[in-house]
Amino acid sequence: MPNQTINKTIYLDNAASTPLDPAVFAVMQPILQENYGNPSSLHQVGRKAYDTLIAARQSVADSLAVEPNEIIFTGSGTESDNLAIIGLAHANQSHGRHIIVSAIEHKAVLVAAKQLEAEGFTVTYLPVDEYGRIRIEDLLNSLTPKTILVSIMYANNEIGTIQPISLIVETIHEHYKNKWCPIVHTDACQAVGLLPVAPHTLGVDAMTINSAKIYGPKGVGLLYLKAGTTLSPLIVGGEQEWKRRAGTENLANIVGFAKALALAVVNTEQTATQLTTLRDEFITNLKTNIPTLFLNGHPTKRLPNNVHICIPDIEGESILLMLDAHGICASTGSACSAHDLEPSYVLSAIGLRDDVIHGSIRFSLGKYTTEEDLRYTVDTLTNIYHTLFSLSSAPIVNKSPKS
Amino acid sequence: MTKIPDINACHDNPSWLYSDIVKDHFFRPRNVLIDEENYQSDGVGIVGSPACGDMMVVWIQVNEDKTRIKDCKWRTFGCASAIASTSMMSVMATEDGGMLLKHAKRLSPEAIIERLDGLPAQKYHCSVLGHQALREAIEDFEAKPAT
Amino acid sequence: MNTTTSSYQWKIVDKKVETPTVTSLYLEPISEKPNFIAGQYVTIQIPNIGPAEGKSYSISNAPHEAQLRISIKKMGNFSTAILNHQLGDTIFTSAPYGFFYPEPIDTNELVFVVGGIGIAPCLSIIKHLAHTNNPRPIKLFYSNKTTVEIAFKKELDTIAQDHPQLSLNYYLTQEETVNTDCITGRVTPEQIVSSLDNKAEAEIFICGAMDFTKSLWKGLHNAGLPQHQLYTEGFF
Questions:
Q1: Residue A211 belongs to what domain range?
Q2: Eight-state DSSP code of residue B127
Q3: Is the N or C terminus of chain A more exposed, i.e. has fewer CB atoms within 10 Å?
Q4: Would B60 be classed as within a structural domain?
Q5: Do the Cβ atoms of C230 and B108 come within 8 Å?
Q6: pTM
């Protein structure tokens, strides 16, 4: 087993969480230390906070090319997803009680949809192809006069596949023409900073974004909601966010989020190009060194930073722990590493067998990832593969006629 | 065996899962069979499946009078708990001159876990498999006609 | 090799509520009846519910009996789905498997320490030993929360009446006992050890939920019983 030769941490789990950009920390610090007022208070300390809040919201609105009152700040991407699914369903149920989501949405959408099912709503879970893309025919076939909400994530957090959001929106609008049209929501948490996310470009009515994935602070997210869309709030008891999400605003987080979002949007093209190059070279090198591995998700319509692979004959948790011992941070869809011992439902949805799901690893690059990081990772993973393969019973049992 | 994590020590390669002994048997596993083609085993046991996420093959050699385990080798597909469980099981089966077959049949998951200084609750089945793999190997040996 | 493929087909011919939480299913083989050793279990797979490889349930009656009995404690979606089957339904199981059984030639004292539904494989072994008139002394320490939850008490009491080599100790952890044949409190390693005829020879089989088997294994080990005199079947 090779000794650790690099002392730094090689963080390749940016899809789970990102480091805080120093520029974001710089704008947050004075807020934490000095700008402590409640934006709802009448006095000068409160008004200072209020002004800061307004400026941050305007910044976010500018980044997304929308109006300030179309932004609802929440406590997380999960909360935004919950608010979108449950809040929009409840508020619009006079038009019907049918909802459509994809089978590979984030749990924050799927579990919210399940909750609505328990309340009597019907939910269609659109299947995906072997790359994780929904089929437009399936979407068309599931639209009904009672459909009120369609939620399809922009890019999948696990396998990186990008959905054709504009086409989905177009299809839905075309189908309903002059009638009441279902609300279209997308979870864009993984796409921000890597793909264009301006809601008007995509055509969506609602969008979830969270700060933790874009080098901003954790504990803050947003739901973009097109003006005029009715929503039932989940968190009540205050006037904040135009009564759509109560609670004293976390100003430092919101300011940090606004800064992170501005940086992400401005640098999208450059980051995407840079990461796509690194990603593709990484994939090529991995395949050269470990010929049995294969990539999951769409080969081209995938996030610039996502490298999701399966390595036959060895298991994900053990791969991760060995990577970790060498300073490399990644994640796995293997059941063995999950607290509930369930294998990844996303990998099941794209048709992978249980045994290969156990050998899955996700690397998600970030803006701080270097070529050297990835070269070291290829070398380390190759060594790990040989070590675990030599321990593994899989090659033996696969060879033997009885198993 | 669960340790309450010290939040101030988190920077120091925090292992939220495993004891030092488990880590030792995972990074430096004992008794792995490298060359299965040329190993003369007296009994082989196979348990689990890749679909389940754990699969172990265990080979044993017994001593002259067929009362003790002389050698125990293995290969495991699975997580760190599975690898450490098979490794520790093989050590327990062969230490001190080798376990009596009668005793080896009673090498429970709890005994393996105790020597590992604990496993997370959701990994209990890994040590169950380790035990069953050894039982299968012994059963394979005992099923063979006496020569 | 352990196989979890559902190779055996059964018809549910009887359903019996044993306690408020435990129900037994009596199964008649549609294909051939597999042989099994008392103490083994079968694995049941239900499409779309629970783990793909299925869950295991100990056979709670003995090999000589015509029907196979599995006794299910209602705990979650999977057990509920099994118990939703009706009389006449078909159910698929794997071949019987497992190693939780005593050696046929042994004659030393056999002690069962059981928590709740852990009684299932132990009852199978006890019924088999009774049926074959095995003189081996058996002690059962059987722990439940309350009287109504003692599954198979009548069955055990009946066997004990006809077989003096079986002695029964019922423990209740959450009820003040009204029966003189139950003991209030948790069964302790010390109580078990002090009951042994010969500490150096006794064999102790512990069966129940994982935490129960772990804590009793440790306790008995610390009380001086070597590892080879202890055996477990922890339910997980």
A1: 22-266
A2: H
A3: N
A4: yes
A5: yes
A6: 0.91
